[in-house]
Amino acid sequence: MRAFIYKLHLLLGLAAAIPLLGWAASGFLYSLPNAVEGGVVEKIAAERVRVSPAEAMASANRLAGRELPTTALTLLMKDGRPQYQSIGGLGADSIFIDAETGVAEFSKPPTARTRFFREAHFYFFAGRWQVPLLLILSGIATLSVLTGIYLNVVYWGGRLFGRREKRLAEGGDED
């Protein structure tokens, strides 16, 4: 039984290590300055905001040519300018609206590094399977940890208590 659990633990560890490697690599990439778009956080210059959220949403709708089902409208600083980011109805794309002028434009395609970060870090590559995949990988990681704990308890329990029992059997005292 122990040999089976040992082999299972090795396989589960390998299966859990692959997504963790991608997660770690994307996290490292995010920590490098200017490696990923949106990696710099700037304080919003509120005095420069001239466009209201309602006007920004109307500008985004005009650019898209239809009423968008906006799920988020975020005010942020991008390239030193206050901008709204309108999300919803465009898939992975969004619309940026300049908060000073009201000019709207579609988001530019991400660079290869940013795309890797999003795919590896958030599992966007999985599409609608993103949540089930995360749950499966979490289950695999949990089983790997549990089998590792079991193997450690059996190994160290045998070493620690096995020696004590061996000394007692040989006629030695308990301490």
Model description:
With 175 residues, this protein is an alpha+beta fold. It has two domains: 103 residues, no CATH class; 71 residues, Nuclear Transport Factor 2, Chain: A (Roll). It contains four helices and four strands, in the order ααββββαα. A four-stranded antiparallel beta sheet has the order 1-2-3-4, with helices on one face. A hairpin with a 6-residue loop joins β2 and β3. It is elongated. The model has no long low-confidence stretch (mean pLDDT 83).
Features of the shown structure:
single chain, 175 residues, alpha+beta, Nuclear Transport Factor 2, Chain: A, 2 domains, four-stranded antiparallel β-sheet, 4 helices, 4 strands, elongated
Provide a short characterization of the protein structure.
With 175 residues, the protein is an alpha+beta fold.
Task: List the SSEs and their pairings.
Elements lengths: L1 H30 L21 H12 L7 E7 L2 E7 L6 E5 L5 E3 L5 H11 L7 H40 L6
Antiparallel strand pairs: 1-2, 2-3, 3-4
Helix pairs in contact: 1-3, 1-4
Oligomeric status of the shown chains?
A: single chain
The total number of structural domains is: 2
Question: Mean of residue pLDDT?
Answer: 83
Strand content: 5-15%
The radius of gyration over CA amounts to 27 Å
User: What is the number of beta strands?
Assistant: 4
Q: Within the largest sheet, what's the order of strands? A: 1-2-3-4
**Uncertain residue ranges:** none
* Helicity level: 40-55%
Biggest pleated sheet: 4 strands, antiparallel
Number of distinct helices: 4
Shape: elongated
Helix and strand content put the structural class at: alpha+beta
> What letter string, H or E per element, gives the SSE order?
HHEEEEHH
Kindly report how far apart the N and C termini lie: 32 Å
